[in-house]
Amino acid sequence: MSGFLAGLCVAVLPLLAAGFWLGRRTARPQHLGGLGTPVEHATFQTLHTASLATPPLRAGLTEETARKSARKLRSLLGTDALCLADHKEVLVWDGVGAHHRTEIMERLAGPLETGRGEAFRLSCDTPDCTVRWAVVAPLTVDDRVHGALVACAPRESAVLVRAAGEVARWVSVQLELADLDQSRTRLIEAEIKALRAQISPHFIFNSLAVIASFVRTDPERARELLLEFADFTRYSFRRHGDFTTLADELHAIDHYLALVRARFGDRLAVTLQVAPEVLPVALPFLCLQPLVENAVKHGLEGKSDKCHIQITAQDAGAEALVVIEDDGAGMDPGLLRRILAREVSPSGGIGLSNVDERLRQVYGDDHGLVIETAVGAGMKITVRLPKYQPGVHSAGLLGRE
Asked: pTM of this prediction?
């Protein structure tokens, strides 16, 4: 009996192993053939290839981005050769027949000027050259021709003409998105320059005047304030990066408040509460300091007694919640709405609209400033900063040049 069981086990084990192997193959396909029908397989391959060509093109049309994307684009069309060109030269040639570069560039003058595609026969004295026809599809962004995609094949093909046109339109969309990214970057840089230009001249003058007043009476105090002023201005006018960390921004605010307290003394009281876990969060450069300057201005404006400013930064799950609150003069809500819409200019200092617009540009409209205020009731400004946002990375530590 035991011999029979042993023989049965020997016979069944290969069947179990085969069943296990088949089950593994069925449950977890090891190759693209497991995706389904040939049509589904081809669709996946096409989309996957297109996705691989996208990242380089999102940086614009240059020799480097053309080189990185040409192989994938040629794979999409299934041609013997493909080249990408701008108005000056062929940026990349992928495939056979590279000796046609000069001829291709000469024939591109018309399509690059008119923005219309064209197909033409190539002249070639090389017997074993497999490319005899070229299809030109212009690459356009906002009705401006940036360059051309040229597909080369052994023979004329209406299908290739249409396919090259579709791929060129897809490439043009990527280039348009790249142009939008660059425009967004330029806009953010312009907004930062505007902030730097708007840093109150009165603050600079008053800070230097306060420092000068201590030179004879308290030289050590004057030296400390001069260092605070130097650190604050170095941070405000630094040139590396559009983003910083919450820690660096708060550090700059501390320098700013040291100078303000030296001028106003006991009239200004500041409470700072910061959760350590939110200090590494990245945020747009010069985003919070203007809000604190606004709180100082409106907190002390028209008041002879003490002004209290409270700054808190809390951990709110996927976000850091920063609140800047003062008990000063406040503002009419209708006037505030017009200021944020840039219908009217703020009465001196740095406008809130600049910070509000940059936050919306970086994080979306759901992350603009939330402001609670009324005449005589002070002002409370809430900023929600996502801890992780694509493209938002700190440039480095404070003071690094």
From this structure: 0.52
